[in-house]
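MODEL INPUT / OUTPUT PAIR
PAIR INDEX: 1
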Amino acid sequence: MIPIRDGAPDRRTPGAFAARVLAVAAATVLAGAADPAARAPSPRRGEDLYVGAARLSAGGAPCLGCHGVAGRGLARAASFGPDLSGAFAQYGADGLDAVLEDVVFPSMAPVYRGHPVAPDERADLVAFLAEAASAPPAAPTGRLAAGIAAAAVAFLAFVVLIGRRGGRTAARRGEQS
């Protein structure tokens, strides 16, 4: 028998109560996952967004397309926009968040029009720029030294090859005279 309360079936039975508790718990978990404040900003995720290893959710261009960060190697040496190594010191967390939320720079407006940076992405990018501002410049890696050495060897081989051909050509001209 279903108990009646105030002229309607009483839905406070143990089974109905358990179902409501589970529904509220699931909604809370899902809301927390969608809420940017539910997780701490991640400098690693910010770096991935900055360099384009992770895509911005609205499809905007990665920062590295135009901006470099000093001391982060050749891969981060873009030159269209200013270097952002000191951006955190200049604007602070709130200033950077505001700039990323409402892009005011004329060169950036067409790139991000219709592609807003999401709040959690802004928080991650600000965390990365804060970390980049406080970190000492990275020393050149072994890959950089190996690349420079390989380029030098290739250049010397080219010079030697041209030198040998030039000597043969001069000797042939002497024979024809």
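PAIR INDEX: 2
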Amino acid sequence: MWREEGKLLHLTWQAHTDTIRALAFGPDGRTLATGSWDGSLKLWDMKSLCLRQTLTGHTDRVRAVAWSFDGHLLASCGFDHTIWLWDADQSHYRIGLHGHTAGVYDLAFTPDGHNLLSGSEDGTIRVWDVKRGQCVHIMQGHAVSLYDVSWSPDGTRLASAGSDTLVMIWEMEGLTPPRLLHGHHSLVSGVAWSPDGEVLASSGWDNAVRLWDVSTGEVWKTLQDTDHINTLFYGLACRRCFHQPTYELLLSEISCW
């Protein structure tokens, strides 16, 4: 674990019994949620650096976790084809979302917290009404597995990435066919919006991070790890730098741009 100033914080947490595949800080930064291939979720108190709660229910590996923007809900998904919603305040199970026919790879809440987005190995994107626990939209555009989904900051569009090398941008109003962004030469594993929604970043197994101009659908810039030509970028996040109007991409592999 790294502090923001770049210093390494050495922590040893031995609670999960298998690979930890999912990590997500709560909106206030006080809680870290981890999801593991042992089928469990764990909530960690970041002040005491101690385990606060273990959440169980998944019958297979947990692939992703996501917090609602107000921090009251935690969602998890995995290879058991299900999505679980947890009451983060009380640390208990709230409702299960069923419908995908294969592993669910990623989740994202809308900024208002009313809807949850899921992407699956079955090739579909589903939009769920969180309060009712019902699927309200099913979208299919990728020919094969979806690896990442992300809402735009204003909640009007969503982006998806899959193993078909494509990035897609979907307009939620009218649910028109998606705009296809071509450029990657291998599986696309991550997508992330800039805070103003004008730039979309995508990461792939072709050793490339591509920055797309959302208005034109054209690649604005391509970033590559020239020191490690076989780098596979697995995840991606984008946030605004505090002291300048640029964007910093945080990657889960070797390179940080």
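PAIR 2 NOTE: The CA atoms of residues 11 and 49 lie 8 Å apart.
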